Amino acid sequence: MSIINIAIDGPAGAGKSTVAKRIAEIMHLTYVDTGAMYRALGLKAVRNGIDPGDAEAVATMLPDTTVTFIKINGEQHVVLDGEDVNEFIRTEEISHAASVISTLPEVRRKLVDLQREIARSTDTVMDGRDIGTVVLPNTPYKFYVTASAEVRAKRRFVEYQKKGILGDMTYEDVLNEVKARDERDMNREFSPLRPAENAVIIDTSEMSIDEAVDAVIEDID
Ligand code: DC
After folding, report:
1. Nearest C-alpha neighbor of 219 from the set 202, 195, 196, 206
2. What totals of helices (H) and strands (E) does the chain contain, helices first?
3. Nearest to 34 by CA among 68, 85, 82
4. 150 CB-side CA count, 13 A
5. For residue 132, which phi and psi values (nearest 5 degrees)?
6. What is the arrangement of strands in the sheet containing 200-203, beginning at the earlier edge strand?
7. Which residues does residue 201 pair with via DSSP β-bridges, in sequence order?
8. Mean pLDDT score of the chain, rounded to an integer?
């Protein structure tokens, strides 16, 4: 049987990881959160006092850095240099570091190679920014899950509130950060975020997660 890889790209907070996880469950595929890999490298830079935008300093860090996944209680955890770092990578500081470090071509090359290696031998749902355009350009299953910046900021604001990590951030602050990340992700020189030519666009601004999942599965069937 041939390997199936489903590519799901889109901006931060559009619901793509929730959709991807649900599809992985329903179709018995492995969920690969490529954003978590960039976050792990962002975390390592921050921990080592390295500016994530400093290409030279980051390049010296890369050769002896490993990023892998382990499944714990059915959930994929990202492992940095042998340490499960899942609980440290979702803060605002690391979101920013990941967004900055992901602009560096050396970083992208290393992680894209790892992602392709996983996809070669495993049936996956892979979510990210460049999966349909760069990592798996030949997969027939490409989706671009998006939503307006305001809707995404509102979702993120509520999520931070629930997790108790909002601090003194206002909705406006979250919206500004969402827009700044979009700007970096969409306008960077290497592998900018954009829908692959043959991707199916799913706008979740006024759609439930279930509806988005149905839209993907209908298209694959
Ligand atoms: O999906 P996420 O928000 O966890 O991703 C964190 C950062 O990593 C995001 O700013 C963009 C970057 N990223 C990327 O450049 N390419 C990917 N395939 C996945 C994430």
Report:
1. 202
2. 8, 8
3. 68
4. 1
5. -70, -30
6. 30-33, 124-128, 5-9, 141-146, 200-203
7. 144
8. 94
Task: From the CA of 184, give the closest atom in ligand 1.
Answer: 10
| Interatomic CA distance for residues 131 and 108, integer angstroms | 12
Output the residue whose Cα is nearest ligand 1's atom 9.
99
- Residues 136-151 have a mean pLDDT of 96
pTM across the whole model: 0.92
Residue 111 Cα: closest atom of ligand 1: 18
Question: Considering only CA atoms, which residue is closest to atom 18 of ligand 1?
Answer: 128
**Separation between Cα atoms, residue 37 and residue 47, nearest integer Å:** 15
Residue 200 token pair: 């199916």
Give the tokens for residue 85. Answer: 């770092």
Of 92, 129, 146, the residue with max ligand 1 atoms within 8 A of its CB, to mutate for a pocket test, comes to 129
Give the tokens for residue 109: 């090359």
Residue 186 has pLDDT above 80, yes or no: yes
Considering only CA atoms, which of 148, 202, 143 is closest in space to residue 12?
Answer: 148
Residue count of the chain, please give it. Answer: 221
CB of 24 within 8 A of CB of 221?
A: no
Task: Return the pLDDT at 1.
Answer: 65
Residues with CB under 6 A from ligand 1: 12, 34-35, 38-39, 98-99, 102, 128-130, 181, 185
